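Running this now, will post back.
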Amino acid sequence: MSISFGVHIPFVAHLGFSMEKFENGTSELHYSPRPEHHNSFDIPHGGALMTLLDVVMATAARSVDPEMGVVTIEMKTSFIRPATTKGNESLVAKGLLIHRTKTMAFTEGKVYDAAGQLCAHATGTFKYVKRTN
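Update: finished.
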């Protein structure tokens, strides 16, 4: 059963991410890429994976204070192997809050294929912001 993101994020809804874990500085998202999310090699586009990493790191940062929002300050991504999927297989993204200050969050995220192989890794810095809605 997936967990609510707490706010409507149209691009995340369009990609179909589901949040499966959101607690104590960790998060987990599942993503089943559709054909329109693929690149010319018929594998999930790197931009879709970067969005997945951005969101899993942001949710890890928010998991310690869900009333706050976060905005991405910077992120670095390394692509390790193609994130291949077959049929209804999902990619699994795991986020971790490494360090937090009053206003900033330092995180890492990883994407795994259905076989459990690491496909992409990222680090990110986020700024905590008060929600206006």
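The chain has one domain: 10-130. More later if anyone needs it.
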